[in-house]
From TrEMBL:
<keyword id="KW-0560">Oxidoreductase</keyword>
<feature type="domain" description="MsrB">
    <location>
        <begin position="26"/>
        <end position="148"/>
    </location>
</feature>
<dbReference type="InterPro" id="IPR002579">
    <property type="entry name" value="Met_Sox_Rdtase_MsrB_dom"/>
</dbReference>
<dbReference type="GO" id="GO:0033743">
    <property type="term" value="F:peptide-methionine (R)-S-oxide reductase activity"/>
</dbReference>
<dbReference type="Pfam" id="PF01641">
    <property type="entry name" value="SelR"/>
</dbReference>
<protein>
    <recommendedName>
        <fullName>peptide-methionine (R)-S-oxide reductase</fullName>
        <ecNumber>1.8.4.12</ecNumber>
    </recommendedName>
</protein>
<dbReference type="InterPro" id="IPR011057">
    <property type="entry name" value="Mss4-like_sf"/>
</dbReference>
<dbReference type="InterPro" id="IPR028427">
    <property type="entry name" value="Met_Sox_Rdtase_MsrB"/>
</dbReference>
Amino acid sequence: MLRWIDVLTFAKYGNPEPSHRVEKTEDEWARELPPARFRVLRQQATEPPYRNAYCRSYEPGLHQCAGCHSPLFDSATKYHAISGWPSFTQPLARNAIRYLFDESHHMQRVEVRCNVCGGHLGHVFPDGPAPGGLRYCINSESLVRVAENTG
């Protein structure tokens, strides 16, 4: 289980290596992604709160990166944070997420990106529920939910 000290350590000293990398030019991403997804994943935009696909969705499944389809979060770790964006307590794997210090907009935050393709997902905060205390505040545009296999 990751904790805030792990997040800060990764952001400061280096992130775990992903299982593989997906590298494309920005032109390739722009051709492949719908405009709203491109703005979030590649230009670090933020979608409007509460009016996004997964804010109020708690259906079981895995949430994958909308850019490269790498698994990021399990719906079992999603909770109602009243933030306006989907919130998760833990990533699916230690090496699923890349952590970077973000001082944009006159704030000090930790940005989270897909560790495979580098797509912007959102931010992580130390105000989540126990036991880990993390809140991954994620843009719906950066995610694709895949239903659990019931067969």
